[in-house]
Specification:
Radius of gyration: 27 Å
Number of helices: 9
Strand order of the largest sheet: 1-2
Oligomer: single chain
Number of strands: 4
Helix content: 55-70%
Length: about 190
C-alpha cells in the first residue's frame, strides 16, 4: 500500500474508534510494522497542529487517540447543551396521545386501547422527556401511572392540557367503530 493510502486508513481508524488505539493493533490490521504506523500517526499529528485544524492526535500511555484542541471546547459545550431533536413515529404519537388524554394512565390501559404492547413506545417517550412516571395505582402489583411533562407542553406549543384539541363526539364514535371493525377482522383472520 502507498503511504497516502495508509495515512487515510489510519486516520479513519483513529476517527472511528473514538478511544485510544494501540499502534500495534493498527499495524497488525494493516500488516505493516508498528514503527511505520507510529511514523504515520506522528506525521498526521504534526500536520493537524501546523494547519491549526479542529482535530488533534494525542498520545496516551503508548496509544493514540483523535481529539479536539482545547481552544474549541467552549463551542463544543454550546452544541452539546442544545436540545436534542427527536422523531416521533406514528406508534409514539398514538401512545403519546393516549397518555395526554387519559392521564394518569397505566401501560396496561394504553395496551388495551392500542391493542398491542406499548413498553418500547412508553420507554422512548420517557427518554424524550415527553412522558414521566407520575405515581403508582393503588391496585395489585402497584402499576406505574404515566403522564405528560412540561417538555410535552413546550414541544406541542400549549401552556396546559386544557389547550389540547377536543375531538368531536361523532368522530370519537367513528374511531371506535373503525377500531372494532379492525379488531373483528384481525380476530376472524386468526
Amino acid at each position: 500500500m502507498e503511504k497516502k493510502e495508509l495515512e487515510s486508513i489510519i486516520e479513519g481508524i483513529l476517527f472511528t474508534m473514538g478511544d485510544s488505539v494501540d499502534p500495534s493493533k493498527i499495524a497488525a490490521a494493516l500488516e505493516i510494522e508498528k514503527d511505520e504506523v507510529i511514523e504515520i500517526i506522528d506525521a498526521l499529528a504534526k500536520k493537524y497542529e501546523e494547519e491549526d485544524r479542529g482535530i488533534r492526535i494525542t498520545k496516551l500511555d503508548g496509544s493514540y487517540q483523535m481529539c479536539t484542541p482545547p481552544s474549541i471546547y467552549e463551542y463544543l459545550i454550546k452544541i452539546a447543551k442544545q436540545p436534542k431533536r427527536y422523531a416521533l413515529t406514528d406508534t409514539l404519537l398514538e401512545t403519546l396521545s393516549i397518555i395526554a388524554y387519559k392521564q394518569p394512565v397505566t401501560k396496561s390501559e394504553i395496551e388495551k386501547i392500542r391493542g398491542v404492547s406499548c413498553d418500547h413506545a412508553v420507554s422512548r417517550l420517557v427518554e424524550f422527556s415527553l412522558v414521566e412516571e407520575v405515581g403508582r395505582m393503588d391496585a395489585p402489583g402497584k402499576p406505574m401511572l404515566f403522564g405528560t411533562t412540561e417538555q410535552f407542553l413546550r414541544s406541542f406549543g400549549v401552556t396546559s392540557l386544557e389547550e389540547l384539541p377536543t375531538l368531536n363526539p361523532v368522530q370519537v364514535e367513528e374511531f371506535k367503530q373503525a377500531a372494532e371493525e379492525e379488531a373483528t377482522h384481525l380476530t376472524v383472520g386468526v
